[in-house]
Design a protein that fits this description.
Blueprint (H helix, E strand, L loop, with lengths): L2 E7 L3 E3 L7 E3 L2 E2 L26 E7 L12 E4 L10 H4 L1 H8 L6 E6 L8 H4 L4 E7 L5 H7 L5 H13 L3 E9 L6 H8 L5 E6 L7 H11 L4 H8 L5 H17 L3 E2 L14 E4 L3 H7 L1
Parallel strand pairs: 1-5, 3-6, 6-7, 7-8, 8-9, 9-10, 10-12, 11-12
Antiparallel strand pairs: 2-3, 4-5
Bound molecules: iron/sulfur cluster (SF4).
Iron/sulfur cluster binds next to loops.
Length: 289
């Protein structure tokens, strides 16, 4: 049961603290997808909400953006700590409003979602020169997906990815978070290779407050993996990720997929040859090598 209310904010654009700069934009506070591993749930303590993460949503009202050119050349990430296409976007249309206000800007738009509602806004998105839309897909198994989040099915995410790709917009399959022993990254890449420009890979990080919930889930549903999870998340060993990194880079090489560990400049990939970008905690892994 969600608690949804409207709030007034001064500005919708937040300067990003990331080294790459740019802006992050979250038209909502909270996220009704309620992913069990949500890295953004730390936000709750800044929201004044006492309810559990995933059960509240504040819908932002902001003063209209008067000069979209202010953001020319900047990267604007929509949905860093919410999903701008959560189910309430259908009713409130805040992400659509944002895209309308940014029309004419030469900003690079990047959208992170677990929904297919973004298809509604293809008309607006096509008018920007640089747009990237990424869908988080860490499984092809709908049961595991439903255990982990309340967003739309994997089938709907993949269908949306295909339509966006075919509409000429850069599409990303974000395999995140990779659950050791559960996520089959290669099977996902095989599935999306013809309609993803990029595949991003990110490991499951259990430093957050959700660690207990995930460990309990593994004990209950995947008892055979308890030892592996304890090695990774209690003993902080990185062999699993190093081995997986090697496996995926060899797999990419054997299939002719470009493979790297850094952000790539904006561009489309050759059809059937998605570029694979590995964002495993690479600094740590490389230092340990
Ligand atoms: S979609 Fe993203 S922000 Fe929303 S609950 Fe899931 S991980 Fe958190």
């Amino acid at each position: 049961m969600e608690i949804v209310k409207e709030i007034d904010v001064r500005s919708i654009m937040t300067k990003s603290s990331l080294p790459v700069g740019g802006y992050s934009v979250n038209p909502y506070v909270g996220c009704t997808h309620a992913c069990k591993y949500c890295y953004a749930s730390f936000m709750k303590r800044f929201t004044g909400h006492l309810e559990p993460w995933g059960t509240f949503l504040d819908v932002k009202n902001w003063k209209p953006i008067v000069d979209p050119h202010k953001y020319d050349g900047q990267r604007i990430v929509i949905g860093s700590v919410t999903d701008g296409y959560n189910e309430f976007e259908e009713e409130f249309g805040r992400t659509r409003r944002l895209l309308e206000e940014l029309q004419g800007s030469e900003a690079e738009i990047m959208i992170c979602t677990k929904s297919d509602l973004v298809l509604r806004d293809l008309d607006l998105l096509k008018r920007f020169r640089k747009v990237t839309i990424s869908w988080s897909v860490n499984t092809l198994d709908e049961t595991f997906r439903a255990d982990m989040d309340r967003a739309v099915s994997i089938a709907r995410r993949l269908e949306a990815m295909k339509q966006v790709y075919n509409a000429g917009i850069r599409a990303v399959c974000f395999i995140s978070p990779i659950f050791p022993g559960i996520t089959d990254a290669k099977a996902i890449i095989e599935r999306v290779k013809d309609y993803a420009d990029l595949v991003w890979l990110e490991n499951l990080n259990l430093r957050g407050q959700f660690k207990t919930g995930i460990m309990d889930y593994i004990r209950e549903k995947h008892p055979n993996l308890v030892g592996l999870y304890e090695t990774i998340y209690n003993e902080n060993r990185t062999e699993y990720w190093r081995t997986l990194e090697t496996e995926i880079s060899e797999y990419a090489r054997s299939h002719g997929y470009p493979y790297c560990v850094n952000d790539l400049p904006y561009g489309r990939s050759e059809k059937g040859k998605p570029a694979i970008v590995n964002y495993f905690y690479h600094e740590k892994i490389r230092l340990n090598k």
